[in-house]
Amino acid sequence: MAKKDNATVTLVAGGDIGPVYEPTEQFAELISPVLQQADLRLGQCERTYSERGSEPQFSYGPGGQHSRLHPRMASVWKAAGIDIVSLASNHAMDWGPDPVLDTAELFRGMGKYVIGAGRDAEEARKPAIVERNGVKIAFLAYCSVLRDGQAAGEGKAGIAPMRAHTYYAPEEFQPGTPPRIITVPYEEDLQALQEDIRKARKQADVVIMSIHWGLRHIPKTICTYQPPIAHAAIDAGADLILGHHAHSIKAVEVYKGKVCFYSIGNFMTTGSAKAAAGTFDWNLIWFPIDRECLPPNGMYHFPSHCRKTMVAKAVIGKKGIERVSFLPTFINHRAQPYVVTPDDPKFQEILEFTEWVSDQHPHKFRVEGTEVVVDTLG
Question: What angle do CA 162, 128, 230 make, to 5 degrees?
């Protein structure tokens, strides 16, 4: 019995996943050996995989870009061995409810746990309870960057929302000054999130929350709505928060001995495909700002600082999370992430970048081997 009580589970987590080039397995080639050393692997799904759906009536940028891919493109998830998939993203409902439901069914058929989306609010908010080595872990997922009508509701498919209000405060005495942007959480969403966490705590030893939020591409900036959500989640019983959507590393914060990764950055992804309804034409890319950063024959169409990323890691026991760390990771010109070692100059670059984006938040890092440990003891 003592051996079981002392057992631990190693979890690793990466950010956005969803390459649009085939074969998709190539994007897992360099990172997969590291992922396979863990007991559990979590990833954020940036696409839907379906042959159904209605053409979106909105555009994300010049020419538009949307995120529905053919189901065969989900092979990258199998190659990477991801166990838990969050579908709570701003792209989940791009093509309406059918594709996200198809995607959930596809992943379940692959033996994966799905969180953050469903046929109704109850299913979207339902935790995945995963047991390994006698340790029960509850996983929940939410999205703050969604459009009207995309949240799951009573009898309505969608994603689990954690929305925010946006206000603008002008500097009226100084014409032409950009307004201050203030964002605050939807109180009803925050209360529901906290209740979800409290319920999950009764079913598991540890609760881990995944959340799609924040400003994309912009380094360092944390929206004012984000810390209140993170702190409220931890106050309700969350043990670890894994953020994404920014496509870049954001702050690592320690709050009451718990770790919040505001963004763990990109993972196995490329620029989004543009496809008309009923077709699968894998065209390139809509980000005009990124064209300058695209190397010859490159597949990674994001700003250069978005190449710096990480694999978050947690060692989990029955009494809680025993250790939190991250593996500095770099994304090459073929959009393949790989873990860098301390003898590689990129290791120090990524560590210094993470220190910089975290410098307004309580944290302390120390290097142990190939990992950067987050000190939770203060």
Answer: 35
**Residue 226 Rama label (left phi>0; alpha psi -120 to 50; beta):** alpha
Q: Which CATH number fits domain 2-374: 3.60.21.10, 3.40.50.620, 3.40.50.720, 3.40.50.360?
A: 3.60.21.10
pLDDT in tens, 9-61: 999 999 999 988 888 899 999 999 999 999 999 999 999 999 998 777 565 55
pLDDT tens digits, one per residue of 334-353: 899 999 999 999 999 999 99
The three-class DSSP label of residue 250 is: coil
| Alpha carbons 133 and 274: distance in angstroms, whole number | 43
Amino acid residing at 302: F
3-state SS class at 123: helix
Q: Answer left, alpha or beta for residue 265, where phi above 0 means left and psi between -120 and 50 means alpha.
A: left
3-class SS of residue 337 = strand
pLDDT in tens, 151-193: 999 999 999 999 999 999 998 889 899 999 999 999 999 999 9
> 210 phi and psi, to 5 degrees?
-105, 135
Cα separation of 73 and 18, whole Å?
8
Residues 55, 52: Cα–Cα separation, whole Å? 10
The residue written with tokens 């950010």 in the block is: 15
Sequence ranges of the domains in the chain: 2-374
What pTM was estimated for this model as a whole? 0.92
Spatial CA neighbour of 164 closest among 145, 180, 150: 145
